[in-house]
């Protein structure tokens, strides 16, 4: 079955959506799951959707959602314990799904249906990551404060949890320049006190962090789910 479909990369998804038919199927290899899978209701009430964030270990900025709908599910993907965080996977016979919402950071998503296959790649350790480390000092000096969709890798140490902030904020010190940036934590991450305590004072890699300047608070902020952050010495 895998031989029937071309192998593509995450950066190809937009081109496929714009230039191929909606029936076009493809394979993606060595996707890295960076968060726990989650279920949500479909907006039109037709069922549920299962999603997981995936990235390419080989290129910073290559990240999206892998999704499947209950009305035509990829059965393996819907198995409760099949997909976990920090796994390498291959997908076969996938299609592109476009999310037109302006606020989404993953407009071109990987759709698995009843004709798709998903395989776990057994590995002893995390994949070798190609990094695009940038210092917070460089961000502040080189990028305009109106920049959007800035995605980069940061090597940081959490030094303070800011009290009474909504969402929860951590003050991070960049190890490359000693400049500071704020890490916003949303939803269930806000209540994960045990994980927050575990990360404080340790060198972390925030890979594919979404970085923006917020004029209301006059600060640079990075957003990334807590599950996706790695201790820098793990790999």
Q: Indicate the percent of residues in helices.
A: 10-25%
What portion of residues belong to β-strands?
35-45%
- Structural class label: mainly beta
Number of domains: 2
Secondary-structure element order, as H and E? HEEEEHEEEHEEEHEEE
Q: How far apart, in Å, are the first and last alpha carbons?
A: 33 Å
Rg over CA atoms, rounded to whole Å, is 18 Å
CATH architectural category of the largest domain: Beta Barrel
Query: CATH superfamily name of the largest domain?
Result: Nucleic acid-binding proteins
Biggest sheet, open or closed, and with what strands and sense? 5 strands, mixed, barrel
Layout: helices, strands, pairs:
Blueprint: H1 13-19, E1 26-33, E2 38-41, E3 48-55, E4 63-69, H2 75-78, E5 88-98, E6 108-112, E7 117-121, H3 136-142, E8 150-162, E9 168-174, E10 180-185, H4 193-199, E11 204-214, E12 219-223, E13 230-231
Parallel strand pairs: 4-6, 10-12
Antiparallel strand pairs: 1-3, 1-5, 2-3, 3-4, 5-6, 5-7, 8-9, 8-11, 9-10, 11-12, 11-13
What does this 3D model show about the protein?
The protein has two domains: 2-121, Beta Barrel (OB fold (Dihydrolipoamide Acetyltransferase, E2P)); 136-231, OB fold (Dihydrolipoamide Acetyltransferase, E2P), CATH 2.40.50. 11% of the residues lie in helices and 39% in strands. It is mainly beta and 235 residues long. The longest helix has 7 residues, at 13-19. The chain has helices at residues 13-19, 75-78, 136-142, 193-199; strands at residues 26-33, 38-41, 48-55, 63-69, 88-98, 108-112, 117-121, 150-162, 168-174, 180-185, 204-214, 219-223, 230-231. The protein has a five-stranded mixed beta barrel with strand order 1-3-4-6-5. A five-stranded mixed barrel has the order 8-9-10-12-11. A hairpin with a 5-residue loop joins strand 8 (150-162) and strand 9 (168-174). The mean pLDDT is 88.
